[in-house]
User: What shape does this take?
Amino acid sequence: MIVRKLREDDLVDAVRIIALSFERELIAIFKDVDIARDIATEFFRVNRDGCYVAEDGRVVAFAWLIKEKPKIFKFLKSQMSFFDGLRSYILLRFFLRRPKKGEGFLVFIAVSPLRRGSGIGTRFMNEVVSIARSEKINTLKCMVPAEGDALIFFKNLGFEINGIFENKLAEKYFSCRSWVLLCKDLSA
Assistant: This one.
C-alpha cells in the first residue's frame, strides 16, 4: 500500500469513497448525494492541500488533514445558490474545526467499504500521523460520533477524548446528538 498526496486523476475514486462512507451526512448537507459528489469533486480539484490517499492497485482510502480552517463558504456560494450554500456551510462547520498553531484537524478518513476490516484504515492512519509529524503538527484532533466504530478505531490508535459535545442540530441532521473530540499528542 502506498500513501501519497491526492492527484487530480484520483478524484473519481476518492469522491466515490467519501460518498459510500458518508452518504447519510452528505445527503443531510447537500440534499442529494450526486450533488454532493459533484461539489466535492470540484472542491478537491482546487483544494488538495492536506488530502492524502492510500493506493493498493487503486485508491482505497482518502483522508483530509487541515492545519487551518478552509474557506468553504465562498466556494459553496459559487457552486450553489446563496441560501443552499449558506445552509450547507452551516452544517459543514460542525465538522470543520479551526486548528490552533501546531495543531492539525483530521476532517475525515474514509476507507472503501470493500476494503474495511483488512487493516488498511489502521495502516493508512498511521501514515497520516507520520505525515502530520513531518509537517510539524504537535497535536492531531478529529471529531467522531460518540456511538459507533469510529470512536473505537481512533482510541485504538492512541487518540484520547478531549471533549464531548451535545448538539441538537447534529442530532437532527446526522442522527447523533453526542460527538467526541479526540486528540493525539504527536510531540513525543
Observations:
- The longest helix spans residues 120-134.
- The chain has a mean pLDDT of 91.
